[in-house]
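User: Structure with arginine, tokens only please.
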Amino acid sequence: MTMKKDVLQVLQQFSPIPLNESMLERPIHTHLGDIALPCFPFAKELRKSPVVIAEELAKAIHHPLILKVQAVAGYVNIFVNRSVITHSLLQTIHTQSIAYGSNNDGNGGVVTIDLSSPNIAKPFSMGHLRSTVIGNSIALLLEKNGFKPVKINYIGDWGTQFGKLLTAYRKWGNEQAVHQAPIQTLLQLYIRFHEEAGLDDSLNDEGRAAFKALEDGDTEALALWKWFKSESLKEFQRIYDLLGITFDSYKGEAYYNDKMKPVVNELADKGLLVESDGALVVELDEDMPPCLIKKSDGATLYSTRDLSAAIDRKTTYNFVKSVYVVGNEQSLHFTQVKQVLGKLGYDWADTIEHVPFGLILKDGKKMSTRKGKIVLLEEVLNDAIALALKNIEEKNPDLLNKRATAQAIGVGAIIFSDLKQHRKHDIEFDLATMLQTEGETGPYVQYAYARAHSVLRKTGASASFFVDEVNDFEWEMVKLLEQFPHITRQAAHHLDPSIVAKYAVNLAQAFNSFYSNVHVLSDATHKAFRISLVTSVAIVLKESLRLLGMQTPEEM
Ligand code: ARG
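Assistant:
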């Protein structure tokens, strides 16, 4: 039960009109009560002014759960009995512990999550970072709501660009250099290919031929490609280790190389394939460009592979929903794929959802992986960790496990600064700001947790939930704690981790003002209760950050 539901039950006993939960509001200001009922919508039916309705209702309500009722300008403002609510809430959190805020809405249904999906032989971009971090949090949120998430890293390891890369390597490549710095070296080769192909078009033909050989399974080409891939994956793995993120599947584009025939045949059988300038396409709804299935030279495309992967995922996992955490710029692609699946008659096409996100900006400009200004993500992560370590050396030089703590803080700062805003927004990337311990940052929330933990280290545990009086500082925390199940549900429903991130900041703020205004230890009558309250705050802060994919050091 939530406070809103409890109050609704009471109100229903006194109201002349049937009420539901959505009619109740939670006033922002404490002096307006804990729950308010605006009476304006009832005026017509009751043929009375809202002011009168509110006054009559306020007079009628008497119940042990309700401390005080005020009618103010058409609103019924309800002040609940804080001790009753607090007592039952603390008991619930104490019993459920980290399961608090979980539900079984998903009923075990599988949701596949396409996330991260970097391209081999290319740097892991800021966009891939966003996809990784957002996708991981969405997986955790879905799990919290009773779904079974399956995280798929759909590696970009196929396409005509690999023909160009093979050609470049054969002409100018050097094994040693690839071993030493695989992605850097392969990227340079790829760039050189484009420069030289600009002067000599026959290179492009060579590139195409090389890709054709690869597609047809040429042993030497395949061996080189496999090597490029394993070297790239090793580099990506270092990033995933820093982020603490794992995947359930690494089936990438190449996996579908020899599995596209059935879809292409099915499209042909159902009369959906149309020839256009030698290429094969599926025509879509008005205002939509057609979806390309095969190029004029017979090569398949990104969309062809995605169609075949989507069907494979349905067959393998029988998902209830299939989400793709990919940047805004691929919206058209996913709309096309979804429409083609719909035209094939797959009713599950409706359960496909593109979860788009904006860019990461540096000083208002896109952080680019183009020639000359490559931002290497691994360096960025290591910079964040180094900065966190420097802060620790200044503030808490005697800390044990400095390196592990710095990693939790540095990486956490990057994750939090990404997730605190709605994913569709572009976000500005500034390490110094995101590592501050003040403001809406990861370290700020982690710090509140560490503080709560240090209180509990001194006091030990307590299981006393009763208190006769709950002060305003305590009440702010109780109200937020009580909202947590609603927060986790909303965040999963909207696939929006920012709901949890904002909540975590609010709870950390409420805890910090409690901490600086109320003496947890000195007041003997309230001490046991306050320890239970701080324990609950620590549990929920830790769980909120876990849902974002962040760690919570106990000291920092
Ligand atoms: N590798 C692609 C890129 O870097 C992203 C793949 C997204 N997932 C998908 N199923 N298309 O742009």
